[in-house]
Write a structure and sequence with these properties.
binds ligand SPQ, 5-stranded mixed beta sheet, single chain
């Protein structure tokens, strides 16, 4: 689907609560399904990715009731999963397929997992390999690196796994499998990736231990249903943080934004760039911190982003690249090779599409360099089917002089179906 956008003439103003966190929403269904009792979820993300997670667990016989953003999971544990009559289709969601492989590996169920054209290209060996070391039986295209994948439940044993990449999906798949394995399972990563799985596991009554970058779980644990409030997704809020900073005359307040320290790298970067950003009303309800984020139009300085910061803001790099086009000086983003295996190769798609607006941006081996500030002009661009590229392009259109035509706008429904409605609200206040 194609849509035409004009630049914003009078600033963006107002208060928004962006939808629930995608990573936490997925995990709330998964933990609800593998524990015993009724898990009641509030502010669940109704994005396509999370709806795929619901549908996959329903196909495994788990009862899930949905009423708007309130969801109930009637958990009876993995022992009561039933053989799915159909393949499990994860759509566009890397989190769904990788974490489900971990969950299914130690059950008595056999299932086939498939996804869309983007999922078909995303590497699965990163989870299949450690799961096989635990005894998992997984087959698939190119020795199990690509979908379709078949998993046949097996007896698992705990391992210690040292991961070469800081990936929450790799870590979570192994830990989830570890819950149904004999003995202890631990994962060490080069830097700490998002820790939602660890937090939720202990919130559901499980035992988990962290020492530095190593996390350990005990096998054969029992988990118990809980009430969950899903904070707003910082990765979705990021688009409005950047819009508020680069669209002249803007002031945006974002409420209940998840501020988990393993996800809040963007706040640190924005402060380094001298952005006018304030955090208030910090709360620590249940197991995930959240608060209010307020931004105003700012004159920004270039920065360098790399190392341990990368996993803390990996999904925000497309929108940070746009922000860097408006900052004074050369911004360097490095150590971010992981961008190449997301919904698209996000180094290539970001650089290619921002160049069309007139940005001075070049790809590097492990990231990109951006020189600013550069006035952008309207362009004919495309999302490449990647939700984060689609939303970044809409924000670019807000400051691009003239008309911007965006192809593939429907991709945004993966994580933020109401993005354009929220845009209208901020324009009209
Ligand atoms: O779920 P999916 O498709 O992998 O989604 C993305 C995204 O931009 O929404 C990545 F493309 O987020 C990942 C994130 O990059 C979600 C995630 C999680 O919930 O555990 C972890 C990160 O991926 P990884 O590979 O670093 O573990």
């Amino acid at each position: 689907m194609q849509q035409i956008f004009q630049c914003v003439s009078n600033g963006l103003k107002g208060t928004l609560q962006v939808p629930g966190d995608k990573s936490i929403s997925h995990r709330s269904i998964m933990f609800g399904a593998i524990s015993t009792g009724v898990t009641e979820i509030e502010n669940f993300l109704l994005g396509e990715d999370c709806l795929c997670t619901i549908s996959c667990f329903q196909k495994l016989g788990v009862q899930i009731e949905q009423n708007g953003t309130k969801v109930k999971v009637l958990g009876t544990g993995t022992k009561n999963f039933t053989y799915p009559a159909e393949v499990l289709d994860v759509g566009n969601s890397g989190t769904t397929i990788r974490l489900m492989l971990g969950i299914l590996a130690g059950t008595t169920i056999s299932a086939e997992l498939i996804g869309d054209a983007s999922i078909e290209k995303r590497p699965m060996k990163r989870v299949v390999e450690p799961l096989r070391l635990m005894g998992a039986q997984i087959t698939g295209r190119e020795d199990g690196n690509f979908t379709p994948l078949q998993v046949k439940g097996a007896m698992l044993k705990g391992i210690h796994y040292s991961s070469q990449i800081a990936s929450a999906q790799v870590k979570s798949a192994i830990l989830l499998a570890g819950l149904h394995a004999e003995g202890e399972t631990s994962v060490t990563e080069p830097y700490i990736s998002r820790d939602h799985t660890e937090r939720m596991l202990s919130y559901f009554g499980g035992y988990i231990e962290r020492k530095g970058t190593t996390v350990t779980v005990k096998g054969r644990q029992k988990l118990f249903a809980r009430k969950i409030f899903v904070p707003s997704d910082i990765s979705s809020a990021a688009f409005w943080m950047v819009a508020g900073l680069i669209v002249p005359n803007s002031h945006i307040v974002l409420s209940n934004v998840g501020l988990n320290p393993t996800r809040d790298g963007i706040i640190e970067v924005l402060k380094n760039m001298q952005a006018d950003i304030q955090i208030s009303d910090l709360q620590n309800k249940d197991f995930e911190p959240f608060g209010t984020v307020e931004v105003s139009f700012s004159l920004l300085q270039a920065t360098e982003i790399g190392g341990a910061l990368i996993p803390r803001l990996i999904d925000e790099i497309p929108i940070l690249a746009l922000l860097a086009t408006q900052a004074n000086g050369k911004t360097v983003i490095k150590d971010a090779k992981e961008l190449k295996v997301k919904e698209t190769n996000r180094i290539d798609t970001v650089v290619k599409e921002l160049k069309k607006f007139g940005a001075h941006i070049e790809a590097t081996e492990d990231g990109m360099c951006i020189i600013g500030p550069t006035p952008l002009h309207g362009a004919h661009v495309q999302s490449h089917g990647d939700h984060r590229i689609g939303m970044m392009l809409i924000v670019a259109s807000m400051i691009a002089k003239g008309e911007t035509v965006i192809d593939g706008i429907e991709a945004i429904s993966v994580s933020y179906p109401d993005f354009l409605t929220d845009y209208e609200k901020l324009k009209s206040q």
